[in-house]
Amino acid sequence: MRAKITYAVTAAVLVVYFVLVGSRGVLLIETGTPVTIAFGVAVLVLPAIGVWFLWKNTQFVRKANQLAAELDAEGGLPVDELKRTPGGRIDRDSADEVFARRKEETEDAPDDWRTWFRLAVAYHDARDTPRARKAMQRAIALHDGKPAPTA
């Protein structure tokens, strides 16, 4: 729940920022000189990119949470079996061992979104965020019946 609140607050702050930056871009355009119009348009591009990125990221998180809920209802969520250091960090060897099993599972059933979801969790536990995201994108695509993104 804490992560959801943090995400919502961060998104709200970003939206306020986008509105402020966008209003400055509009003011520059309204000035009417060629230079300020060019700067105004350039300034408006930044909030547009930010809104697009925020939207895509929010959709990704929403879909990943839907898959987690569905997998939980089926009893298929991966169990946290990782060993931890005294400081609470995940033991690297333990993460590698679980990752190897999850990778083998995925190779055995490459068209099952469930195996890709569990592989994404294993990548995340191994602190490989880019691969975790790609694996989750593949799980979402397979679940939705769309062509899976290529690696």
What secondary-structure arrangement, pairings included, does this model have?
Layout: H1 2-31, H2 34-74, H3 92-108, H4 113-125, H5 129-144
Helix pairs in contact: 1-2, 2-5, 3-4, 4-5
Please give a structural write-up.
The protein is an all-alpha fold and 151 residues long. The chain is 77% helix and 0% strand. It is built from 5 helices and no strands. α1 runs antiparallel to α2, α2 packs across α5 and α4 runs antiparallel to α5. It is elongated and about 65 Å long. The protein starts with a helix and ends in a 7-residue tail after the last helix. The model has no long low-confidence stretch (mean pLDDT 89).
User: Would you tell me the overall average pLDDT?
Assistant: 89
* Residues in helix, %: over 70%
Spatial separation of the terminal alpha carbons: 31 Å
Order of helices and strands: HHHHH
* Biggest β-sheet strands, sense, barrel: none
Short description:
The chain is mostly helical and 151 residues long. 77% of the residues lie in helices and 0% in strands. The chain has helices spanning 2-31, 34-74, 92-108, 113-125, 129-144.
